[in-house]
Automatic annotation (TrEMBL):
Domain of life: Bacteria
Start and end residues of each HTH cro/C1-type domain: 35-90
Signal peptide: none
Classification via PANTHER family: HTH-TYPE TRANSCRIPTIONAL REGULATOR XRE, TRACRIPTIONAL REGULATORY PROTEIN-RELATED-RELATED
Name assigned to this protein: DNA-binding helix-turn-helix protein
GO molecular function list: DNA binding
Assigned keywords, A-Z: DNA-binding
Length: 91
């Protein structure tokens, strides 16, 4: 574990609010990575995906950077646009 990872883990253990925020941003980042990987896998640019689902390219960029929350409805639109099925699981 790196010194930064140790510091983050220590802060997570000290503060429930920090842990909650860290979990939230980790999940946002996971969504961002999945959206970006899917788009690249199907060979689309951000602009092309945006056109298919009816949002500005800047919205795709924000989703892929984790800077903006994405709704389930928009995740469904992405799946439909690339002929995939959105599957949600609880662990």
């Amino acid at each position: 574990m790196t010194p930064t990872e140790k510091m983050i883990e220590a802060q997570r253990q000290r503060s429930a609010a920090y842990k909650e925020a860290d979990d939230f941003y980790n999940q946002q980042n996971a969504y961002a990575v999945e959206i970006s990987n899917l788009r690249k896998q199907v060979g689309l640019t951000q602009k092309q995906l945006a056109e298919r689902i009816g949002v500005p390219q800047s919205t795709i960029a924000r989703w892929e950077s984790g800077d903006s929350n994405i709704t389930m409805k928009n995740m469904e639109k992405i799946a439909h646009a690339v002929h995939k099925k959105l599957v949600v699981t609880f662990k």
